[in-house]
Write a structure and sequence with these properties.
The complex is a heterodimer of chains A (108) and B (235).
Chain A lengths: L2 H26 L6 H8 L1 H15 L12 H16 L2 H19 L1
Chain B lengths: L11 H13 L1 H21 L3 H11 L3 H11 L4 H11 L2 H9 L8 H9 L3 H12 L5 H25 L14 H13 L3 H20 L5 H16 L2
Helix pairs in contact in B: 1-9, 2-3, 2-4, 2-9, 3-9, 4-5, 7-9, 8-9, 8-10, 11-12
Classes of the chains: A mainly alpha (108), B mainly alpha (235).
Chain lengths: 108, 235
Amino acid sequence: MSATYIWTVVIGMAVANFVVRFPPIAVLSRVALPGWLRRWLSFIPVSVMATLVIGAVVRPDGVWLPPAHNPYLLASLATGAIYWRSRSFVGATIAGVLLFVALRAAVG
Amino acid sequence: MPTTGSKQAPCPPRRARFARGLKLGLPILLGYMPVGAAFGIVARDLGFTPLQAVTCSATALAGAGQFIGLALMKSGATALTVVAATSVVNLRYVLFGAAMSPHVSRVPLGGQAILAFTLTDETFAVNIDDNRRGNADAFSMAGVGAIAWVGWVSGTALGALTAGLIGDPSAWGVQFAMPAMFSALLVAQAEDRRHVVIGAVAAALAILLMLTLPADWYVLVTPVLAATLAAVVYR
């Protein structure tokens, strides 16, 4: 793998990632958005999070796992419950990883 | 609102707000370091120098997009294909940016550029949650972004420099660090009954679209469909 090829990819990825991130913020924050669009946007965060959780737990690494033998799914439910009770992101994240390791040994 | 860095006018509240953001983003650091280390290890394995791996993480800050880039490079894709694919994977940032825009309308362009540069799934979720509680401002959001960047870059450096010395990081369950954080952040988003319903609908839609759409298109299509349904139903 040539250095030129790697550097081209590295620079290209840097530019591409800024291009998808910056213009929407710069442009949309300067115009008055209509009410329906603001309402639509207010539903985006919860939709995105649900999508990312599902993607990460039902098909980790691109492989579908059966629910009863899926440590990702079980640990995710437990992590959500721990956050619900504790309201601590750090605590829930650490507890979730420890539970995942235990569940992987038990059912995975 | 002035930008950061005016040294002659010490403004503790501003520094305090930035520090608050750093603290708020601590779980992101914990989640990013091991995954960044995994990126460093895989990149070295592929032929990256430590400098190339760290530069990639420091300038792209793209998580999944970077891993997909490596996978494509391994299969011999052209540079253009690799860059195009990571852009498509990260198209959801357009949605994130749009959702963030009402909250940063008073931030100057340079500050917005910094916040945009550090926009990731996790910084977005933490900042949106903080905004909902009415606490977030440009400096706290910059703090969240800074600690996330430090976690991702230092993790990559650690992985790239120690590649071959430490064993398989998956033994420590690091691959669950992100899903664990997402799970907590999803619960944090469920502020009322409507949001619980939308979350459940999005989850069901995601499974349906994972089964029907090619590659990872469900990541972009699911939120668009779920939010549209919600906007139509909840007028």
